[in-house]
Amino acid sequence: MLYPLTFETIFKDKIWGGQKINTILGKDFSPLPNCGETWEVSDVEGNVSIVKEGVLQGKSLRELVEQYKGELVGNHVYDTYGNRFPLLIKFIDANDDLSIQVHPNDELAAKRKSGFGKTEMWYIMQADEGAKLNSGFNQEVTKDEYVKAVADNTIQDILNIEPAKPGDVFFLPAGRVHYIGKGLLLAEIQQTSDTTYRIYDFDRVDATTGQKRELHTELAVDAIDYHHYDHYKTQYEKKLNESVNTVASDYFVTNVLNFDEEVEHDYTHIDSFVILICVDGSLTIETKGGYSTPLKMGQCALIPASVDIVTLVPDGSMTVLETYVP
Q: So which cofactors does this thing need (predicted)?
């Protein structure tokens, strides 16, 4: 019988990373000097998640998908993605601005033989005073205007910059130019892909190599959505003890659950696994068979598709992201 699965954290040292993974999320990433990302649920080649607890401890996520198929991920999901788990869940600590970048869509990624495209979303968990991020352009831009802005180093003048605070949600479809700004700690839900085209890196030099990081200027050009949009931040109404939908895309649906009382969730109607990501407070997940899985801020659990009913028991109050494949 499958049960809620938790995985060993994969820590990523980044030139822009900091200490909040440890000081706020309580994760010990030593001996790394700092940590920019943790990968919590991953099927990216070379970074496949390993089950942390229970009778399946030590098994890889890929092994589980191959063994349990639709029982784990849902029949529809398995028919669509096969043995490849479709989502990647991260926590990101930006102690400095990340590079300005863009991700390809599925069509372009396939053409370039780089797997899936990368549509993603961010949920802001903590923000230093004045923290900002970039999502999209602040005006309509042509491809030629973009190329010129990159060449003459005025790319930042055409970027849409947004202030960010805890609880903010940003949905970033493939093709949208973006960067996470200094002072932000966030949860990221994305397609299983590690393909990033770096446009500008603020002229940083790697402390180890003494070199600037590689840019992907030409690769980015055909990946970018050059349109300007009226709204880049996802608008949603925060409600207590209700499930609130924030993102509904072809790749994942994400709801925000802010509860201070016990709630039972019936997933019978969802032909997919569900991932619960605790972004504030703590709770216990209870399921049939006597399984009890504690989660605190900065932890995730994968609910297999065969588990229909879960009971969420908050410790005081909690905020959880609930995400699955539609």
A: Zn(2+)
Determine if residue 178 is labeled as part of a ligand binding site: yes
62 tagged catalytic: no
Could you state, in order of their start, the residue ranges of all structural domains in the chain? Answer: 10-221, 243-324
**pLDDT tens series, the chain, 326 aa:** 899 999 999 999 999 999 999 999 999 999 999 999 999 999 999 999 999 999 999 999 999 999 999 999 999 999 999 999 999 999 999 999 999 999 999 899 999 988 889 999 999 999 999 999 999 999 999 999 999 999 999 999 999 999 999 999 999 999 999 999 999 999 999 999 999 999 999 888 776 777 888 889 889 999 999 999 999 999 999 999 999 999 999 999 999 999 999 999 999 999 999 999 999 999 999 999 999 999 999 999 999 999 999 999 999 999 999 999 99
> What dotted CATH number matches 243-324?
2.60.120.10
The topology (CATH level 3) of 10-221 is Jelly Rolls (2.60.120)
286 is in an annotated binding site: no
Instruction: Show the tokens assigned to 234.
Output: 């996802």
Known binder of ligand: residue 269?
no
The single residue of 62, 84, 198, 213 carrying the catalytic annotation is 198
> Which residues contact residue 83 at a Cβ distance below 8 angstroms, ignoring those fewer than 6 apart?
62, 65, 66
Q: Which residues pair with 127 in a beta bridge?
A: 184
